[in-house]
């Protein structure tokens, strides 16, 4: 098990980063918020969870150990795979997610793309006694999907080297794609924003 990786950031992509460790470039799949904290050439420490499949070894990366622990807990719920668990942490902060599960707040959970009402009920049933309460006070309302995608896409673009102003313009440009979608896909919108910037 690879618990974390540390080294210079060799490259940053739409949904992953390459960290150089001992002369080897390790690709780590990350949500836009985690990618936003990375800068090419600068050293970074990313908490990681390794998912082993018959045909692949995949590293998922997180800004801190708290998010990693919650990701791994989510994977123990029936029907929750790595992509869905990562999507949950992209839309909600770890403590917001804990609070939603602990208080059986299905309205918040179904804001995560890929989680329907039955899936939310199953997550609550299986994880409520395991997740614990938030480690910090949860202030304000959890990010709604329509609010969250803007922050995530903006953070992802800034993390990829675009200026905050350019990132805001790109978010505005792709907003019509999410206008009629109650659960917009952050990765898809980020890719669309990158295409918009490349044409500018």
UniProtKB/TrEMBL annotation:
Has three domains with a flexible linker between the domains II and III and assumes an 'L' shape. Domain III is highly mobile and contacts RuvB. GO terms for molecular function: ATP binding; four-way junction DNA binding; four-way junction helicase activity. The keyword DNA damage applies. Belongs to the RuvA family. It comes from the Bacteria. This is Holliday junction branch migration complex subunit RuvA. The gene is ruvA. Homotetramer. Forms an RuvA(8)-RuvB(12)-Holliday junction (HJ) complex. HJ DNA is sandwiched between 2 RuvA tetramers; dsDNA enters through RuvA and exits via RuvB. An RuvB hexamer assembles on each DNA strand where it exits the tetramer. Each RuvB hexamer is contacted by two RuvA subunits (via domain III) on 2 adjacent RuvB subunits; this complex drives branch migration. In the full resolvosome a probable DNA-RuvA(4)-RuvB(12)-RuvC(2) complex forms which resolves the HJ. The RuvA-RuvB-RuvC complex processes Holliday junction (HJ) DNA during genetic recombination and DNA repair, while the RuvA-RuvB complex plays an important role in the rescue of blocked DNA replication forks via replication fork reversal (RFR). RuvA specifically binds to HJ cruciform DNA, conferring on it an open structure. The RuvB hexamer acts as an ATP-dependent pump, pulling dsDNA into and through the RuvAB complex. HJ branch migration allows RuvC to scan DNA until it finds its consensus sequence, where it cleaves and resolves the cruciform DNA. GO terms for cellular component: cytoplasm; Holliday junction helicase complex; Holliday junction resolvase complex. It comes from Kribbella antibiotica. One of its GO terms (biological process) is DNA repair. Keywords: Cytoplasm, DNA damage, DNA recombination, DNA repair, DNA-binding. It is found in: Cytoplasm. Residues 145-200 are annotated as: Domain III. Residues 72-91, 107-126 form the Helix-hairpin-helix DNA-binding motif class domain.
